[in-house]
Specification:
The chain has 20 helices and seven strands. With 430 residues, it is α/β, with parallel strands linked by helices. It is elongated, with a radius of gyration of 32 Å.
Length: 430
Amino acid sequence: MPSPPNTPSMSSPYRPLADEVRPLELDQVVGQEHILGPGGILRRVVESGQVPNMIFYGPSGVGKSTVASIIARQTNRTLHKLNATTAGIADIKEIIAELDTFLAPGGVLLYLDEIQYFNKKQQQSLLEFMENGKITLIASTTENPYFYVFGAVLSRATVFEFKPLTPDAVRLAVERAIDLLNQRRDNPLSLEDGVLDHIVNACGGDVRKALNAIELLFTATAEGAITLADAQAVSQRSAMRYDRDGDEHYDILSAFQKSIRGSDPDAAIHYLARLLEAGDLISPCRRMLVTAAEDIGLAHPQVLPIVKACVDMAREIGLPEARIPLANAVILLATSPKSNTGDSAISRAMADIQAGKHGDVPDHLKDSHYAGAAKMGRGLTYEYPHAYPNRYVKQQYLPDRLKDTVYYEYGENKTEQAAKRYWDGIKGEA
């Protein structure tokens, strides 16, 4: 029975579209101009033919494995691909056995995907071969290699960072794929307005996601035009790059707090939206409480109970409505005056304690509420501030070793300056 029109023969092995349109030359790789463009350092290394051990770091679907394949082809090396989630030392030894045989006349390039899943012993098994040059290792990881790759491997490899693709870069690959798919059809498909824009924006910089979406849309559409509704259905939420245990999680949280600290409510709201869209309610709540104390602090102390109330409300009602009190709190934090004087003061004090600078509590401050305290000289000369005008009397509170040490310095905001004027007046220091 013949195959239906516009579909591959049932006897033909399926080959994913992303693999069919995979670039064969560096000039065809999109979006990594910082390392592969004219004069880019990685391009120059490849063109020299002397390829070192390398680590490719970056998100999925941005060209790491493609570039490794191109390097192997251009340098006449036999390419072997392993994934560290399933491979082990035995697989590496099997590849090593091919060395100096007709199977690998130009040497071996081992592409080890997701190297972060190799434990220390497995990673160390690579060292001997990395050092003697018998294999060229290109390891890839979606996690920060300086956290997940052991130092001995890092010291023998060069790290290249691959960036998420821009929508314009993804568009080039998607348009090439659409042309290929339409060449196979008796009646080429068209795209409704907005379909291409949606696909290239919804993939989150992952060209493989975009190509998979296009392939699915072409498979599901018999004739006519691919609709925007269908495009939205196959790519819903796909733009989110988010792993609660990965780099992206901490990068977004870092950007979130730094945007609040930098008094940029628009950026702060943007990062809050990314966290909430990923279903993460707890992380922004915790970070907002920290930010209220660390970055706003004494400049607007009333913000602390307000943010706490918004966080409590958000956690009580849950998503999606939780976004409303959290948005209000984030905007309040971002637009509040800033002060880190409290954080700075406790950091200085703790640094002294950790350095062994503390000393005995002055006798007049020690507990005197027990029989015999007076005989030991406890509390005898303590002055009770409430018994004096303005409820203040000058006396030493710090240990002798730290006498006259200053940990807290008033901020320039009006709240702390008002407190400074008050105390300067009372202490006679104005």
